[in-house]
Amino acid sequence: MLQDGPMRQLSHILCSASLVVAMTAACGGSATTPTRQSQPAVFPLTITRTGGIAGFRDVLVVSGNGLVSVTHKGQKPRRCQLTPETVKRLATAASQVPWSRITPASTNPSFPDNMTTTVQSPAGGPVPLEDPQAGRAGLIFHELLNDLNASPAASRMCTSV
Fold first, then answer.
1. Mean per-residue pLDDT for 2-28?
2. Which pLDDT belongs to residue 4?
3. Which of 62, 104, 126, 154 could form a disulfide linkage to 150, CB 3.0–4.6 angstroms apart?
4. Mean pLDDT within 40-63
5. Which of 138, 124, 118 is nearest to 43 (CA)?
6. Do residues 107 and 47 touch, judged by C-beta distance below 8 A?
7. What is the pLDDT of residue 114?
8. What is the Cα–Cα distance from 153 to 14, expressed in whole angstroms?
């Protein structure tokens, strides 16, 4: 039995579509493969320490090229340049934090004498550095914060600019 006009056109379209799918698969491609989206940027990182008996208010803003803006309560803000090794360590640590899965934390201390230390990125946060979600990266962020808490001349990780 012969098909009429519209049925014949539909048959040709389906046949052509099947051929395209078969050829795409044979050539190693896939018509339905989603494109991989790039990861969100993790820099600039903002590391903040507030509270404690001493009344800390330290803020470090670290750019991807290693330039750091350092602000300590009661002191004049300063800038420094991280060593290449430190930039690499921070970039590796920041890329290992599961930013998209972190529930943002409060940045306020629970009690007046509690100290809160957090890190935040354009990719997510803030997350307390002690939080297991921060993983080993929390230790590296703490190390930088403690290193920059000393005088500029005593820093092993950052030179004044």
1. 43
2. 56
3. 154
4. 91
5. 124
6. no
7. 84
8. 74
Mean of the pLDDT values across residues 147-156?
87
Q: How far apart are the first and last CA of the chain?
A: 86
CA neighbor of 48 nearest in space, from 152, 135, 127, 154: 127
CA 42 to CA 92: how far, in whole Å? 10
CA 13 to chain centre: 47
Rounded Cα distance between 159 and 103, Å, is 34
Report residue 129 as tokens. 């550095």
Report the 10 Å Cβ neighbour count for 46.
17
Q: Is the dihedral of CA 7, 13, 15, 21 positive or negative?
A: negative
Q: State which amino acid sits at residue 141.
A: F
Phi, psi of 8 (to 5 degrees): -65, -40
pTM for the whole thing?
0.71
